[in-house]
Amino acid sequence: MFIDAHAHLDKYEGSLESALDEIEAQQIFTVAVSMDPASYQRNLEIGQMCELVLPTFGIHPKSATEYAGRLEELGPWIERTPAIGEIGLDFHWVEDASQYPSQKKVLEYFLAAAREQKKIVNLHTKGAEKEILNLLDRYEIQRAIVHWYSGPRSTRTISGP
Length: 161
Prior knowledge:
The chain is α/β, with parallel strands linked by helices. Helices cover 39% and strands 17% of the residues.
């Protein structure tokens, strides 16, 4: 069996059927990450179509400003999801630095919930690798999937070696 730890199946409009056929044929356990409540709803529907698909809820950093003032609305979604993702920081593709505090606020809300609920997190780290590693340390997150890591190999957490 293979594992795809980060897939946006909700974006597979015309090719979803063939993607699900491939997941079944190759026995690929697939973590379907979400970027917002609407994509999570779609991933839940897709998860009903294929038992190898695990839908997970998150708010992508590019959407964080929309949710930073409405964090309490995210609580029921977080409680429902078996793992959390996609969440994180993006200091590369999101060039407007005024959005970074909102990204961090949303990420920290999810990390606190992940710690409390003992859930795995699926992280977007583009351009913010050191900051995320430090937050993982601060929130005592022991189980994380980092997708698209592009920082240096020498990056360590504050308490790391």
